[in-house]
Amino acid sequence: MPQNLLDFDLDGLIAWFGELGEKPFRARQVFHWVHQAGVADFAQMTDIAKSLREKLQQQAVVAPPAIGYAHTSADGTRKWLFDVGVANGIETVFIPEEDRGTLCVSSQVGCALECTFCSTGRQGFNRNLTVAEIIGQLWVAHHGLKTEPNRTEPNHSVPNHSVPNHGAAEISDRPVTNVVMMGMGEPLANFENVVTALGIMLDDHAYGLSRRRVTVSTSGLVPAMDRLAERCPVALAVSLHAPNDALRDQIVPINRKYPLRELMAACRRYLVHAPRDFITFEYVMLAGVNDAPEHARQLIELVREVPCKFNLIPFNPFPDSGYEKPRSETMRVFREILQDAGLVVTTRKTRGDDIDAACGQLAGKVADKSGRVMKRMHKETV
Fold it and tell me: Average pLDDT, stretch 149-172?
């Protein structure tokens, strides 16, 4: 079975080349060809000795996951479904903006955490993705977008209200400027493979992304948060979604194992190592469930000792979810309560919902394996 070189970070590739009797600088050359140049054919690696190219052709491949389909939303959002050899594929989403290009990457086929509002959780858990399948999503998106005609590089010097030059016929050197591990799965439940993939994203010999521009999202696996702080402290987002244990136990079941007191303490510990001086709390707003003014006031007390910002996400409906999107006025009141307390609050703009690429909608070719019937939660009185 040929070795997939996408499974290796640079140290791993150097070690594997050593087993072949090759020197470290050869591994660095190949690593550069694969990740910076996006070359999968060893014959095209022109500065490498012919004998090594022939050896690699016999013993190695550069094999990202195969694309099942690719869709483009009316707003420019892209979604790829990748075939990873199981009934449910994995999905990856690219969100273009004037000053950045963000890739939302999956880490598992399905998810075992069963957050009740998430479409991915409906399909149950199949398996962890390999390093090659994780970094392969970036490889496909980055190099595919990079070679598209009429694509301009994000202009980091322009304010958000500036108008991009859509007519320039340029090829972007860096279409993907930010990566968020917010796709299918719980990244910290696939810890070693995710950390190795993160290392490749950050490596200057590969994609050279800043730690501030790579974000891992977790539902609150406290021990793994501590390990991430030690091994690869990138920006951290925590899927919070409730201001108290009673409610979070229902909609984010992992809270029963790691309740909010432990989660907040882990957030404070993480900030000692983090590249940003705040934690981002993701909060999907569910009409009549977690969107009352009293919930907002409870959040203020909950995060009082955690430097943070809130990203409010209006629920994105999917079939038989049992939940509804809150009214705009409800969200406005909720946001203003948090802002009046001095918290930084953003409201995520829904992108790609016409191709089911919005937050909480990623589910591959959905086959419900969870064994659960999604039921609407009773409206809570707090």
Answer: 40
Q: Are 216 and 194 in contact (CB under 8 A)?
A: yes
Distances (CA, A) of 333 to 16, 46, 310, 327: 57, 60, 14, 10
Residue % of the chain over a pLDDT of 70: 85
Q: How many CB atoms lie within 10 A of CB 272?
A: 8
Burial of 100 (0-12, 13-18, 19+ CB in 10 A): middle
What amino acid is encoded at 376 in this protein? R
Q: 223, 161 in Cβ contact below 8 A?
A: no
Separation CA 130–CA 139 (nearest Å): 14
What pLDDT is recorded for position 354?
55
CB of 187 closer than 8 Å to CB of 221: no
Say if residue 123's pLDDT is above 50: yes
In residues, how long is the chain?
Answer: 382
In terms of Cβ atoms closer than 10 Å to its own Cβ (0-12, 13-18, 19+), residue 204 is: exposed
Q: Which helix (H) or strand (E) holds 332?
A: helix 328-340
Candidates 91, 114, 186, 282; catalytic one: 91
CB atoms within 10 A of CB 32: 16
Q: Where is 220: in which H helix or E strand?
A: none
Q: Assign 296 to helix, strand or coil.
A: helix
Residue 126: other Cβ atoms inside 10 A: 23
How far is Cα 158 from Cα 96, in angstroms, rounded to an integer?
A: 15
Q: Is 91 a catalytic residue?
A: yes
Confidence band of 316 (pLDDT split at 50, 70, 90): confident
* 97 is annotated as an active-site residue: no
Residue 356 pLDDT: 53
Reading the block at residue 23, the tokens are 């020197």
pLDDT (average), residues 4-15: 98
Tokens of 94: 């690219």
Across the chain, what does the average pLDDT equal? 87
Alpha helix (H) ranges present in 276-361? 293-302, 328-340
Residue 282 pairs with which residues in a beta bridge? Answer: 239, 311
Q: Which of 104, 232, 308, 359 is catalytic?
A: 359
pLDDT in tens, 214-246: 999 999 999 999 999 999 999 999 999 999 999
